[in-house]
Structures are given as structure tokens and as C-alpha cells.
Amino acid sequence: MRESSSLSPQHGAADRSDTVLSAEHISKSFGGIAALVDVGFELRRGEVHALMGENGAGKSTLVKILSGVYTGYEGTVSVDGHPVNFAGVRDAEDAGIAIIHQELNLVPELSVADNIFLGREKLIAGLIVDRKASSRAAGALLQRLGIELDPQARVGALRVGEQQLVEIAKALSMS
Ligand SMILES: Nc1ncnc2c1ncn2[C@@H]1O[C@H](COP(=O)(O)OP(=O)(O)OP(=O)(O)O)[C@@H](O)[C@H]1O
Ligand SMILES: [Mg+2]
């Protein structure tokens, strides 16, 4: 993907203090294949962007760089104006960046609350999963996000769109 109007910031002298995520001069090759060539991207607080391009244009590659999947690339990624060098996905998550994959990554047999806190269970005495606390925390999170889902509902019984909301709530619960 080459830098184009859809990817390069066009803000001119606009205030950059509300830029939460930026990528500058990003290049990435796989063997001899250049996936990204000098690409720029800027995301400001409250913005929603659609990244569009034909198959093989480099969309996934850029998203993987921004979210810590790929650690080797040229250029600079910055969060809140500070250059970052994510060592992996966890690092990016700690900085508030997560990918919601098209293919869902939930456990259908478990509840909404259990899925949200999977691997980060709230424990009683460090041993027993505290389902009440987990359900309460999930309920508060869902309410804050305006998502009308029962924390106790089995994820496999939800519609795909609802399952995606669970994934989004889970990602936001990490930041
Ligand atoms: N792991 C890889 N190894 C080798 N080449 C790769 C790899 N990942 C991507 N590429 C190549 O890099 C280029 C960009 O691929 P990328 O998957 O980022 O495009 P995309 O815009 O996400 O495409 P699609 O719309 O098909 O999802 C393509 O030429 C692709 O073949
Ligand atoms: Mg892709």
C-alpha cells in the first residue's frame, strides 16, 4: 500500500494534541514483496476510520503493525504523541489497542461475563473464580458501553452481532 489521500493525514496545521494513534512512514516487506511503502495514518480522539483497499493492498499488515502482531517494520508508530515499539499484542493492549477479528475468539459454552474476563478471572482468596464479582463487573461494563446483554447469557446462544459486542466489551475492559 502506498501512501494515498485515504491514509495520509490532511489536517495541515490542525491541532495534533488530540491525536491518539499515528503511524508515520511505515514500510513492511515480506521477502521481496512490499506490503506497505511509506504509509501514514493518524487517528484522533473520537474518530472512526474505514481503511479500504483492494485485496493485498496492505490493510491487514498495517493493522497488525498498529496492534503489535508484527514487530519488524520501518517507520514510527506513536500513541498519544509518544513513539512506541510494541513487543507483542499484550503490549499493544496495554496501550489500549486491540483488534476485533472477523472470526470471533469467544468460548461459546461460557457466559458473557466469563468470556470478558477469560484468563483474568476475579478470584476469591486467589483460588476460586468469583462468578458474582465477575458478573457484576461485566454488567457494569456493558451498561457503561450501552450494550444490552445479560452477563449470564451463554455466548453461543447470542447472535453474531451480539457476540461481536462481547468481543468489543472485552477489548475495552483491558484498557
Ligand atoms: N505473512 C506474509 N507473508 C508473505 N506475504 C504476505 C504476508 N502477509 C501479507 N503478505 C503480502 O503483503 C501484501 C499485503 O497483504 P495484506 O494481507 O496486508 O493485504 P489486505 O489489504 O489485508 O488484503 P485482503 O483484502 O485480501 O485482506 C500482499 O501482497 C500479501 O500477499
Ligand atoms: Mg486483510
Q: What value does the average pLDDT take?
A: 90
Note the run of SSEs as H and E: EEHEEHHEEHH
Low-confidence stretches: 4-13
- Helix/strand-derived category reads alpha+beta
Task: Name its key features.
2 domains, 175 residues, elongated, binds adenosine-5'-triphosphate, alpha+beta, binds magnesium ion, Rossmann fold, two-stranded antiparallel ribbon
Give a structural overview:
With 175 residues, the chain is of the alpha+beta class. It folds into two domains: 19-94, Rossmann fold (3-Layer(aba) Sandwich), CATH 3.40.50; 112-173, no CATH class. It is built from five helices and six strands; from the N terminus they run E-E-H-E-E-H-H-E-E-H-H. The strands form two sheets. The protein has a four-stranded antiparallel beta sheet with strand order 2-1-3-4, with helices on one face. A two-stranded antiparallel ribbon has the order 5-6. A hairpin with a 2-residue loop joins strand 3 (74-79) and strand 4 (82-84). The radius of gyration is 19 Å and the shape is elongated. The protein starts with 18 loop residues before the first strand and ends with a helix. The model is unreliable at 4-13 (pLDDT under 50). The chain binds adenosine-5'-triphosphate (ATP) and magnesium ion. Adenosine-5'-triphosphate is lined by residues 30, 33, 35, 53, 55-61.
